[in-house]
Design brief:
Mean pLDDT: 79
Strand content: 15-25%
Low-confidence stretches: 76-93, 210-218
Number of helices: 6
Order of helices and strands: HHHHHEEEEEEEEEEEH
CATH architecture of the largest domain: Sandwich
CATH topology of the largest domain: Jelly Rolls
CATH superfamily of the largest domain: Jelly Rolls
CATH class of the largest domain: Mainly Beta
Length: about 220
């Protein structure tokens, strides 16, 4: 897989620094799993952060801090052991990147998909976001149209399967697309493959169509 469209460097550096919301981090990390060049940038950001921490002067720890740290590490290892099989099985079965597969361990077919437009379905994933940012999956039949809408905040989508087209550009597996607040957007799913993508959505998008605006409160997307 050789993605052509990548997240801006600011997103990759923020992922390495650990400053992204969980929904944002999931999408950016999913791209980095499939893109060696972007993964190198994330690794560099993590290395720089580690070097900066190592250069800080030592600080006295509170009584029992090290024991609490060991307990937290043991609890984390137990959770990983308990959850590793479903996540890995979900990845192997669905082809989803691991950063996303952990939220859908039973696969995407069992999710409560909602009809958004002719041939287009969406679902909000059960993720806690302190900033109110949604993590959503969208699936479109071949040739289906993601209706025109205006973005209420930042958004990034990542193609998981198939492709979609925007203004003559093709976004295929591993490709990401950034959208700025206030920008308008309309995409068409590939006429042969359709499309499956994941996106984080900040704020509330405003559909341009009257009927779509009426239905939006019922879909929650």
């Amino acid at each position: 897989m050789n993605p052509r469209h990548h997240p801006a460097s600011d997103w990759l550096l923020a992922l390495g620094a650990g400053t992204l919301d969980e929904a944002q981090a999931t999408v950016v990390a999913a791209h980095a799993e499939w893109c060696p060049a972007c993964r190198v940038k994330v690794d560099c950001a993590e290395a720089i952060g580690g070097a900066m921490l190592a250069s800080l002067p030592p600080t006295a720890m509170s009584v029992g801090a090290f024991d609490r740290f060991l307990q937290c590490m043991a609890a984390t290892d137990n959770l990983r052991e308990q959850g590793s099989a479903p996540s890995l099985n979900g990845f192997a079965h669905s082809g989803l990147p691991l950063s996303l597969a952990k939220f859908v361990p039973q696969g995407i077919d069992v999710l409560p998909w909602k009809h958004l437009a002719p041939g287009v379905r969406g679902v909000r994933l059960p993720i806690h976001s302190r900033r109110g940012i949604q993590l959503c999956l969208f699936e479109a039949d071949p040739g289906a149209v993601f209706g025109s809408h205006t973005h209420g905040g930042s958004e990034m989508s990542l193609v998981l399967r198939g492709a979609y087209h925007v203004n003559g550009l093709r976004f295929g597996p591993g490709d990401s697309e950034d959208s700025e607040p206030g920008s308008r957007h309309m995409a068409v799913a590939d006429p042969e493959e359709g499309c499956l993508c994941v996106a984080f959505i900040e704020g509330v998008n405003r559909p341009d169509g009257f009927l779509a605006r009426l239905l939006q409160p019922f879909t929650g997307l």
